[in-house]
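User: Run a structure prediction on this.
Assistant: Running it now.
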Amino acid sequence: MNRTHTHTIKQLLIAITFIATTLLPARADEARVSLLTCSPGEEVYELFGHTALRYTSDKSDIVFGYGYFSFNTPNFVWRFILGETDYMAGAVDYNSFIQEYRLRGAGVTEQVIPLDSLQKEQLLRALVTNCETENRVYRYNYFYKNCTTKIRDILTEHIGAENIVYDAPLQAATIREALAAHTAVQPWNEFGINLLLGADIDAPATREVLQFLPTYLMNDFANAQIRGEAGSHPLVSEQNELLQPVEKRKTPNHLTPFNCALLLLLFTMIVMLCEVRSHRIFWVYDILLMGAQGLAGTLLLFMATCSLHPAVGNNYLLIWLNPLPLLLLPLHIYCAIKHKRPTFMWIQVAMVVAFIASAPFVPQHYPAPIFIFSTAILVRSIFHIYRERICELSLY
């Protein structure tokens, strides 16, 4: 949804803003304002596309945006995890903007917004003000304050949000459903998003909330009307495809989360069969299995309690995907070495059973691979508890 730039380029963007705006005509009646919607890319930060605002006159052609950031910012990754990411407003000339997306092979759609001279003049002043050094930085929020919602808000503020009537039906029922439509082509990214984001994104979403996605805002604008004293007229007077997205050949990836979960369950069964036949306990496998479960649970708990990101706090996956397996792991290794019965594995069984049994009743949609992963944990735990009876041996 956002574009990456170094610190030097960001400073140039601000300079271009002021240089370009000095060339704008005193009167804005001949200028044109249009919404630019860029198609999704392959990078994580490009998965949902991008939104910008184009201001065209006889002397200049400028694109304003709110999606500028730099990986060179001190502690960028850590701050992003904590939800303390700051983004910036900026501007660039249209030719540079369109060339960047042409090189990416992305599509760009332009929707002309019919504003009167006063609205265009006031909008331009507001955009330039937002690009000034003391105003350009804002605290980014990927659902409620991002490069798309900032553009929408500044536009509707000058049009009059109360005058806009949206005729199209909602494009999704929930935020998770809307995200799935954009992440389906990258199953591992989709899986990670579904792990980290909890029940809040499964609540019914309003049109305003769903407009955090560029394509959703574009489609809503395309079917919206502006009410006025003289009647209603379309919010978008003209729509043009400035760039067609380039179709890229994708190599099928069969190692999807679902297939990997099935392989893990199959491998767990094979490990247990080998243990029965060899009369040995492969506790190294348990270190890997329970360690992965505990580390993933630690990440979810950290995000739920420490991060300012929206929708990470109310995560029911913590019922079984939590740090507790890391505490149980030393006990399990001790029991395996001393050939003792690991009765504490009932804790694992209880967590998994509670998770699966409560799934139909909690207000959160779980990714399908999670049920297979949890089943592997359940089968492994029950096997350890009843291994003596299963094998009719006394190996503990």
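The first strand starts at residue 3 and ends at 4.
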